[in-house]
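dumping this here before i forget
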Amino acid sequence: MFTDPIADYLTRIRNASSAGHRVVEIPASNLKKEITKILFDQGYILSYKFEDDAVQGTIKIALKYDKFTKEPVIKKIKRVSTPGLRKYASSEELPRVLNGLGIAIISTSHGVMTSKQAKLENAGGEVLCYVY
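structure:
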């Protein structure tokens, strides 16, 4: 049993991309599915597939690599808010990652979204992770 399933999700992606794997399989949850959709929309992963075979189901993520250098597109993926220390930000204090080159994934009352979308909707929330 995991105390932080989001950290486990991010660690599986980080480990698979550093090892050069094409696909990573992760136990599913609604929050993980929303984060996966954001990573796909922002161009950090190639594709994804939700499989509801068992009680929990799985998420299969095809990782994206640079064509020429074979480097992973996700350089760094970092958990910000942990179960022991939650990090919240108001709509005015939302973080910018690498001066706008990366994304911060925020869990708001309007759903899970990037910090840019949250700023447009004037919504603050819990800062889940940084991706660049």
